[in-house]
Amino acid sequence: MENKKKVFIVDDDEVALESLKQLLVVSGFDVELTQDAREVLEKAKRGKPDIILLDLRMPHVGGFEICEMLNQDAQTKDIPIIITSALADFADIKKAYLNGVISYFTKPYDFKKLLQEINKIIAAKERTL
Question: What's the count of helices (H) and strands (E) in the chain, helices before strands?
Fold first, then answer.
């Protein structure tokens, strides 16, 4: 049996979180969720996801700070991050890429394109292992 790839979704919008989860589960992924940005680092260390989908606008800890925390930790620095955010300003997008983000999707996004990107990034990561 093939190992399911694990996607960790971080978003404070419960509706967005659940709908994206359902679409990814149907597409064959194992999905973990959190609405609390303060849990991201520990959950990523424990769950070892293949990729993280991260909203930038989060209560308590912002998405850019989460990127920094993940990239500075030896256990999580190699986990690819895709931003899924309503922030469409060029400065925000540039800052995300400067913080190590692999890809950026502005909400509302095309799920098929997001799914293609997730698959492409995971496949590229597997080729480098």
Answer: 5, 5
